[in-house]
Each structure stands twice: as C-alpha cells, then as structure tokens.
Amino acid sequence: MTPTLLGGLIGGLLAAGLLLAVLSTPALRRVTLADRIAPYLADTASVSRLLSAPAGGTATALGRITAPLLRDAARIVDRVLGGRASVRRRLDALGEGGTVEEFRAEQVLWGAIGAGAGVVVGLLAAVVGQAGPLVIALLVLGCALGGVFARDWWLGQALARRDADIIAEFPVVAEMLALAVTAGEGPMGAIDRVTRLAHGHLVDQLTGILADTRSGTPFLVAVTTMRDRTRLEPLSRFLDGMAVAIDRGTPLADVLRAQAADVRALSKRQLLESGGRKEIAMMVPVVFLVLPITILFALYPGLVAITTVAQ
User: Is it the case that residue 76 has pLDDT exceeding 80?
Assistant: First the structure.
C-alpha cells in the first residue's frame, strides 16, 4: 500500500468520525416528543431502577452511545427500502413479536458487519494487488448493501422453513383435533388437549388462539384473526372451515378430516414437483461434465490415429 493511499484512508476515517460526532451533538439532533414533554412530567413517580434494564457495563454504555445513531440509520434504511407492510406481515407470520424498527436496526447492524468485512478485504486487496481507493469504496458499499439485503433474505428463509414445518405438522394436528372432537370435546377443549400433547409451530398458532380466547376475545374472532394473519393458504382454509363449521353448526370432525386429506394431497403434489425439479437439476452434471468427457474419450484415439497417419 502506498503512503498516499494509506494517508487517504486514515484521513477519510478521521473525517467520517468527526462528521458523526458533530451530527450526534445535542444541538444538531432532532428534538423528540419525549424530550419536549419531559420537563412537564418531572413531578410524576419515577420507575424503580430494579424494573428497568441493568445499567453500567461496557456493552450497555456502548449501546447507549450508539443507540441514537442506530435509530437514525434504521430510519434512513426504512425510508430508502420501504415495504413496511411486507416486513410487518412477515414478522407477524413468523411469530417472534419483533417490530419493524428492530428489524431495520438489525439490517443496519448486518450492513455494518458487511462494511467491516469489505474494509478488511479491500485493505488486503490494496496490499496484495494495489487496488485503488475507488475499488475499495465500491467494495465496502457493495458489502454493506449485501449485509442489509442478506438480513431480509434470512427473514424470508426463516419464514419459508417455518411454513414448511407447519405444512408437515398440519395433517397430524388436524387428525388429533378431529379425534378429540369426535370423542366429545368442544373446539376449545380439543385445541387445549392438542396443545398439551403436541409441540411445533402449528401448535404455537393454536396456543395463540387459546390465549386470545381466555383473555376475553370471542373464539370466532380469535380464529378469524389468526386466519387473516397467516400467509399459508392451507392453514387459512383450515381456520376458515373451522369458523364456518362452528358458526353454522355443521359437523366439525368431518371438516377437520377433509382439511387433513387436502393437505396430504398437497404434500404429495409438492413432493412430485420437487422430484421433477431435482430430476432436471441432475441433468446438469450429466450434460456438461459426463457427456463431454465421454465424447472426448471416444474421439481422442481417432484424432491421435489421424494425426499419426497425417505425419
């Protein structure tokens, strides 16, 4: 690395640090609503420090220092990327209870980690291959954007795995509910029995319905709310069929068995489709690796013989 490039990198880091320090001063920061109304709430009872987050420590102090900058960066990422409704739906479907702001903050952290990795790779490339400042800057920017989008991709992958687990658990849980209803249990009693006997993502969904009902929400309202929140069509049909059967007084056990049979048929179709895609993927090494080598072994002796005769 040349002295000019090293001096430019150190100067850039110093300028970035000074800019962040100036922008984070109280005089330049936006006054929040909590800061404006805080002087008028001075006479209220303060919350016990035992109920608040533990103070002190290096990690807590560092978190308090970087929290405003992290919130601003998360707000900028949310403004640039958009899609709050989509993120909200996916977080609700995942069932982890996080907010969009927390997800944006995680995206900022992933982007910072990616930018750090880009700086390391860029410095190594500058030492080994004499990479220019523009290449290093583009590498850092690409790694930062890759980290931001990687967090969104990871959320989609986690949701896809959860959906696959729910589809796999669905027939067994539906059969258990049908068996409990046939034995004389009511809908809430059947769900309660299944949640005590089974575990899994679908059982967690049913536990949420049971918790909403016990907190005072009508059972049909809890079922329809869960139906509107889920993004799986089989589960939505299942909850809709349960709500319609309870509302109209139709036999619930028959509806549950029919839904379980439909999901088993759907699993068979998905298995056949996956097998067809894997079969096509298996043709790639055959066509591009095995077949050329076979042709080479078949033609090479003839080419050698023709070359020998020609000489």
Answer: no
- Can you read off the two tokens belonging to residue 49? 């420090």
> Nearest CA to 142 among 116, 115, 121, 124?
115
Q: Each residue of 230-254: pLDDT tens digit?
A: 777 878 888 888 888 777 777 777 8
Within 8 A by CB and 6+ apart from 218, the residues are: none
CA distances to 35, 36, 60, 176 from 48, in Å? 20, 23, 18, 47
Centre a 10 Å sphere on the Cβ of residue 147 and count the other Cβ atoms it contains.
21
Residue 260 DSSP SS3: helix
18: closest CA among 6, 28, 32?
28
Q: pTM surpassing 0.85?
A: no
- Report, as an integer, the average pLDDT of 70-89: 76
Q: What token pair was written down for 34?
A: 């909590």
Helices 233-248 & 219-229, crossing angle to 10 degrees? Answer: 160
Query: How many CA atoms within 13 Å lie on the side-chain side of 56?
Result: 2
Which tens digit of pLDDT belongs to each residue from 102-157? 888 888 888 889 888 888 888 887 777 666 778 888 888 889 888 888 988 888 88
Identity of the residue numbered 231? R
pLDDT tier at 29, thresholds 50, 70, 90: low
Long-range contacts of 199-202 (CB under 8 A, 24+ apart): 200/165, 200/166, 200/169, 200/173, 201/95, 201/162, 201/165, 201/166, 201/169, 202/165, 202/166, 202/169, 202/170, 202/173, 202/235
Q: What angle do CA 40, 43, 48 make, to 5 degrees?
A: 115
Q: Is the dihedral of CA 130, 131, 133, 136 positive or negative?
A: negative
Q: Which pLDDT belongs to residue 54?
A: 47
Tokens representing residue 216 in the block: 């005072």
C-alpha dist (Å) from residue 129 to 6, 125, 135, 256, 276: 14, 5, 11, 65, 46
